[in-house]
Specification:
By secondary structure, the chain is an alpha/beta fold. It has six helices and eight strands; from the N terminus they run βββαβαββαβαβαα. It has a single domain, classed as Aminopeptidase (3-Layer(aba) Sandwich), CATH 3.40.630.40. The longest helix has 18 residues.
Length: 193
């Protein structure tokens, strides 16, 4: 009797449901890649926590969401792109925390690369400014790997500076994490209106 493999090399993606919105949420860094670090606080932990909160909010509204990582594991930039391309989302959102050599910079940034991502960038950035009391550092056309190589409209948000003692304290608070998640989710809702 032949033995069937337990895991096939390439799992077939389920067919998309008409009328549903498909979103990839990409928590920056992970595993051996801690991202920016200050006073024992790792960017990778903040991005994962906020990403899970965004996913929860989106799923409550009926969105189908895929995360590029769901725990503290390392996922290469190319693997993040591959996960997104295989999922075929309507949009891709990468969540990061900014850092500087100085303690003084603070604020929110939203990065996009392709022109088809500008509307998404504007919607999420405006929502962050409406929901988070922080400086507007603006929209930037940038060549970050994950937003440059994904097919779907894609943005990378910098949700504050870990290098700023004031913003770092906010970024680790549950209230700021929830406000940030709400801001990103509401920007996504607005994009699809």
């Amino acid at each position: 009797m032949p033995i069937e493999p337990i895991v096939t090399p390439k799992q077939k993606q389920p067919a998309k449901v008409t009328g549903k919105r498909y979103v990839v949420i990409d928590p920056g860094h992970g595993g051996s890649d801690c991202g920016a670090i200050r006073n024992g606080i790792n960017e990778k932990d903040i991005t994962l926590d906020i990403s899970k909160r965004v996913v929860s909010l989106l799923e409550k509204k009926g969105y189908v969401v895929k995360m590029t990582r769901t725990n503290d594991t390392y996922v290469s930039l190319q693997d993040r792109v591959t996960i997104s391309e295989n999922f075929k989302p309507d949009i891709f959102v990468s969540i990061h925390v900014n850092s500087s050599n100085s303690e003084s910079p603070t604020g929110l940034e939203t990065h996009y690369y392709k022109d088809n991502s500008l509307k998404l960038a504007k919607n999420i950035h405006a929502s962050m400014l409406n929901n988070i009391n922080s400086k507007d550092r603006g929209l930037f056309k940038s060549r970050f790997y994950v937003i440059n190589h994904t097919t779907a409209p894609a943005v990378l948000v910098e949700i504050g500076f870990i290098s700023s003692p004031v913003e770092r304290a906010q970024l680790v608070s549950a209230s700021r994490k929830q406000a940030t998640a709400k801001a990103i989710a509401e920007g996504i809702y607005e994009y699809f209106k």
